């Protein structure tokens, strides 16, 4: 399997009549879909000193993240994971923003930020252990300044805001970034986060990956204006960036983080991208999304875009791409072997931590479940 092949798969059939989104004039873009470098007076300075080696590093990050993501999807289909939320198509938004962070910055993710986790040094097998049900995350958040995944939609923005307010009170010059999707932007927690962060001038960047679909709900069912414009009503700046452009994502996030560290308060970054796969492996996007829409976005693929730029600029040769292909396959094998070596989930772990001090109803449910499990051993539940 080639590193780009996953993006080329087509849904089984067309569905829906939704028009393909168009690029807005306010979109910050430094690399066109054809891999051409374009100038931007406001943001060029944030990537002006980037070296060919660093560009190859961004490409490597995206390729390996996509390979890991593809392997996770396959493992779920083979019954090794309970569920998987793919990031396919969103690699540039995550790698660009992730590489803009300093070590002392703190990240609050949702459950799809596998590329950001990669940038923060979190072992991919820890992510898979969580989706397999054998751990609750598997990493110490304070070791990587990367919080555990958050399943409750939008709640991590409140956590990030509170943490950022604490950072400011401590007098530190680090920043906080909170990731969420276009669907989460409709949650009350996000609106409350905007209010508190603005009033208290918290050093937090709200990074919204607008991948066009909140499961089966298109963005136009979430908002009447571009999402980044919502920041205006709360009194802080918002910017829309081409989320399939890793250079633009890097530059805009650097700008927003610098604002936060300088005491200028929060920023909303809307990374305008596309979810090329399903919402999760329990979802079938062909039921609500047209083939034509996906095909239009495949032409803007973030990995192919940077590869074209590397090739046209003579920043990478075939030897580099061949070595990376070998590395990506090795990563896939390592992940697959690690997951298959993991133990089966503890069936009774679901009853732990439901209440801090225990609860009679939970005890009753645990006992009933134990009796049910025992019935299989006795042949009664077969």
Describe the structure in your own words.
By secondary structure, the protein is an alpha/beta fold. 43% of the residues lie in helices and 8% in strands. The chain has helices at 52-77, 91-100, 114-119, 124-132, 141-144, 155-170, 188-199, 230-234, 246-261, 291-298, 302-312, 318-340, 360-377; strands at 106-108, 176-181, 204-210, 213-214, 217-218, 238-242, 267-272. The strands form two sheets. It has a five-stranded parallel beta sheet with strand order 1-2-3-7-6, with helices on both faces. It has a two-stranded antiparallel ribbon with strand order 4-5. A hairpin with a 2-residue loop joins strand 4 (213-214) and strand 5. The radius of gyration is 22 Å and the shape is globular. Mean pLDDT is 92; it is low at 1-25.
Form type: globular
Q: How many beta-strand elements?
A: 7
Beta-strand residue fraction: 5-15%
Low-confidence stretches: 1-25
Major sheet: arrangement of strands: 1-2-3-7-6
Helix/strand structural class = alpha/beta
Average pLDDT metric: 92
Distance between the termini: 40 Å
Total helices: the number is 13
Please write the string of helix (H) and strand (E) elements. Answer: HHEHHHHEHEEEHEHEHHHH
Q: Biggest sheet, in brief?
A: 5 strands, parallel
Give the fraction of residues assigned to helices: 40-55%
Q: Round the Cα radius of gyration to an integer and report it.
A: 22 Å
């Amino acid at each position: 399997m080639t590193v780009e092949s996953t993006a080329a798969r087509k849904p089984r059939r067309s569905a829906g009549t939704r028009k393909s989104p168009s690029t807005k004039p306010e979109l910050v873009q430094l690399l066109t879909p054809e891999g051409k470098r374009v100038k931007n007076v406001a943001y060029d300075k944030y990537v002006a000193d980037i070296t060919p080696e660093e560009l190859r590093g961004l490409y490597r990050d995206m390729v390996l993240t996509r390979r890991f993501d593809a392997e996770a999807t396959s493992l779920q289909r083979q019954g090794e994971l309970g569920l998987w939320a793919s990031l396919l198509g969103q690699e540039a938004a995550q790698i660009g923003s992730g590489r803009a962070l300093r070590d002392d910055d703190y990240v609050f993710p949702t459950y799809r930020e596998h590329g950001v986790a990669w940038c923060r040094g979190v072992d991919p097998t820890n992510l898979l252990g969580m989706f397999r049900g054998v751990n609750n995350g598997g990493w110490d958040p304070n070791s990587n300044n990367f919080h555990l995944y958050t399943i409750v939609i939008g709640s991590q923005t409140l956590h990030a805001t509170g943490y950022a307010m604490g950072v400011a009170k401590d007098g530190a010059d680090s920043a906080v970034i909170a990731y969420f999707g276009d669907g989460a932007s409709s949650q009350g927690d996000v609106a409350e986060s905007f209010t508190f962060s603005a009033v208290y001038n918290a050093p937090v960047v709200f990074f919204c990956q607008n991948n066009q679909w909140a499961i089966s709900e298109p963005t136009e069912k979430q908002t009447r204006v571009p999402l980044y414009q919502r920041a205006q009503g709360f009194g802080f700046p918002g910017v829309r960036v081409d989320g399939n452009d890793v250079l633009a994502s890097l530059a805009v996030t650097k700008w927003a983080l610098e604002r936060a560290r300088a005491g200028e308060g929060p920023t909303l970054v809307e990374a305008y991208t596309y979810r090329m796969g399903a919402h999760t492996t329990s979802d079938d996007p062909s039921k609500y999304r047209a083939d034509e829409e996906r095909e239009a976005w495949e032409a803007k693929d973030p990995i192919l875009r940077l590869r074209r730029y590397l090739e046209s600029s003579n920043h990478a040769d075939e030897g580099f791409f061949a070595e990376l292909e070998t590395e990506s396959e090795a990563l896939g094998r390592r992940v697959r072997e690690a997951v298959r070596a993991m133990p089966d989930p503890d069936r009774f772990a679901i009853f732990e931590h439901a209440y801090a001090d225990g609860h009679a109803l939970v005890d009753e449910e645990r006992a009933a479940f134990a009796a049910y499990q025992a019935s299989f051993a006795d042949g009664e539940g077969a």
